[in-house]
Amino acid sequence: MTDFFANIPQLKYEGPETDNDFAYRHYNPDEIVMGKRMEDHLRFAVAYWHSFAWEGGDPFGGRTFDRPWYGEGMQQAKMKADVAFEMFDRLGVPFFCFHDEDVRPAGADFAETTRNLEEIVDYFGEKMESSGTKLLWGTANLFTHRRFMSGAATNPDPEVFAWSAATVKTCMDATHKLGGANYVLWGGREGYETLLNTDLTREAEQAGAFLSMVIDYKHKIGFKGQILIEPKPQEPSKHQYDYDVATIYGFLKRFGLENEVKLNIEQGHAILAGHSFEHELALAGSLGILGSIDMNRNDYQSGWDTDQFPNNVPEVALAYYEVLKAGGFTTGGTNFDAKLRRQSLDAEDLILGHAGGMDVCARGLKAAAALLEDGGLEAARDARYADWDKPENKAMLHSDLASIEARVRDQGLNPEPRSGRQERLENLWNRYL
Ligand code: XUL
Ligand code: CO
Questions:
Q1: From the CA of 238, how far away is ligand 2's center (Å)?
Q2: Each residue of 260-302: pLDDT tens digit?
Q3: Which ligand is nearest to the CA of 235?
Q4: Residue 303 — very low, low, confident or very high, per pLDDT cuts 50/70/90?
Q5: Which of 119, 124, 339, 383 lies 20 to 30 Å from 170 when distance is taken between CA atoms?
Q6: Which domain holds residue 394?
Q7: How far apart are CA 53 and CA 144, in angstroms?
């Protein structure tokens, strides 16, 4: 036991009327929503990097946090793990997620770095066993070290490709050993700073080959988890190849991998791509590649990936509506890819950031479920397209322009516009928020 969270109790559901800051007002793990426990719908995970590895820096200033585990040794890495698992327990979150870089010190060479990772994986294994906390996903950090400055799989230097492939193998081994439900690939520097020095054709071929090897390795080791790609349009690179859901789907089709890979969709990344979160989720749902979500929010004025905890119930409700409509999470879940503001220095800030985010998600989920159960939105949508179910209209999709022209003439078609009823549907939504 560390004393980092001393004086902070384990959080329980106390209902909306409680005045206890260290309690849930809406997140009630056992409450049944659409036939399933709330905990099993939301599948919350803590992101190790933001809560335990990030030091509060921004582009203009360094560390603001002061944590007893900061440093480069294995001792520090283990203390960090002790505190992390204490937080999972205080919050009652069922899952966590990590990059290799978040959890182990780098060694002098690849072999030592891998040994450090394996030692921490064993340490995690014991803690997961005794606490019941599970791994939502593992991933490799292929973006922080200077060797990745020109990309990982898409690097012009084949030795960096090799280093990256070897690193992903070790991180897949770690994830597999810990029973991870998914493995994530976020292409932080898979993109470019300038087209003047970039060969798009080669870089796409390298990325396709890399992903194929990841999938082959998954099958070779019998990893049953889902491989997920996380879209983001830019930052750190000026342009990232995994721009958004549609772009990744095109990439997967190009390399014949669309049945092997799903997506981990992040709120803030959707906004950076010029979409809404619900747009990205709806599109992934319709393409059958909605896997998991990174929940957070961006500051809409700054234009950066600010990774704040969610605090906007209507937005979150729209997102969970799409998740529920797609059938809910199977291997996926709600990972808080969210960090404190750099002035939030205290241990309790970490707890309260997550607790507030969990309550916001719980409210969003309940609103989404209520609207889905109401059925009004889906009924209105079905009614809008109902004429397409008539045989003569359905047949048109397999017809040809000349036959359709003949039909328009013969039947004297002259379509009358009909209302899209947007305000009525917005009012319907509002009843559930
Ligand atoms: C970066 C980001 C990553 C991925 C995992 O914007 O979202 O933390 O979630 O590498
Ligand atoms: Co993310």
A1: 17
A2: 999 999 999 999 999 999 999 999 999 999 999 999 999 989 8
A3: 1
A4: confident
A5: 339
A6: 379-430
A7: 12
Residues 400 and 285 grouped into a single domain: no
Does 74 have pLDDT greater than 90?
A: yes
CA–CA distances in Å: residue 385 to residues 71, 415, 429: 60, 14, 20
Give domain status of residue 20, yes or no.
Answer: no
Domain count, the chain: 2
389 is known as an active-site residue: no
CATH number of the domain encompassing residue 65? 3.20.20.150
Q: Check if 102 is active-site.
A: yes
Q: Is 69 in the same domain as 134?
A: yes
Helix, strand, coil fractions of the chain, as percent rounded to 5: 50, 15, 40
Task: Please tell me whether residues 191 and 339 are part of one structural domain.
Answer: yes
Does ligand 1 have an atom closer than 6 angstroms to the CB of 86?
no
Residues 367 and 390 in one domain: no
Q: How much distance in Å is there from the Cα of 220 to the middle of ligand 1?
A: 26
Angle between helices 277-287 and 245-254 (to 10 degrees): 30
* Residue owning the nearest CA to atom 5 of ligand 1: 186
Q: What is the pTM of this model?
A: 0.98
Ligand 1 pocket residue status of 137, Cβ below 6 Å: no
Residue from 26, 41, 50, 102 carrying the catalytic annotation:
102
